[in-house]
Amino acid sequence: MSYIKNITIQWTYPKTFESAYYSDDSYGRGVYQITRVFGGNESLLYIGLVKKEGRDFYKRLEEHKKDWLDNVRGKVYIRFGKLEPRQGFTLSEEVIETIEGALIYEHEPKENTCKRNTYTIHHDMLIFNEGFRGYMKPQVDTRKHETDYNDRH
Fold it and tell me: Could you read off the pLDDT of 23-43 as tens digits, one per residue?
């Protein structure tokens, strides 16, 4: 692999599903997290991505609503993650996919069934979670994931 890519994710303030769906933040590419508050406790349910040009967060949220979000008990919140490369590299689909995989691997959200145990690391990355990051750890290093994966197999 080549040099390590540093990227910052600026997480938005948590929005209710209804307000997130119509928010200006729901346009563009990047990552997002879905949480719920039930019984006074907030929990991380899902981490997703929008990696293709012309496909927006609101389209993915609409799909989740049809597939499983309507069955969630409690109040659902969305945080959008805007990706900000620190070294000026291009946000390719592979870069966004690696970021999503790293976040899922690191945080193991309940509704993510893929990428919890392993994922494809296209680039070595150091991910900095900033803003209203919720359950996201301040920093995620994909090089640690490679070591973890190799140690387990």
Answer: 887 777 889 999 999 999 999
Q: What is the pTM of this model?
A: 0.87
Dihedral sign for Cα 35, 36, 42, 45, please: negative
**Number of neighbouring beta carbons within 10 Å of residue 83:** 18
Strands 5-11 vs 125-131: parallel, antiparallel or unpaired: parallel
Which residue has tokens 């620190």? 86
Token pair for 109 = 């959200």
**47 neighbors 109 (Cβ within 8 angstroms):** yes
Helix, strand, coil in percent for the chain, rounding step 5: 30, 30, 35
C-alpha 24/C-alpha 41 separation (Å) is 27
Q: How large is the greatest C-alpha to C-alpha distance in the chain, in angstroms?
A: 46
CA atoms within 13 A on the CB side of 112: 26
Question: What residues does each domain of the chain span?
Answer: 5-152
Over residues 89-95, the mean pLDDT reads: 84
Asked whether 85 and 4 are in contact (CB, 8 A), the reply is no
- Contact 58/130 with Cβ under 8 angstroms? no
SS3 82: strand
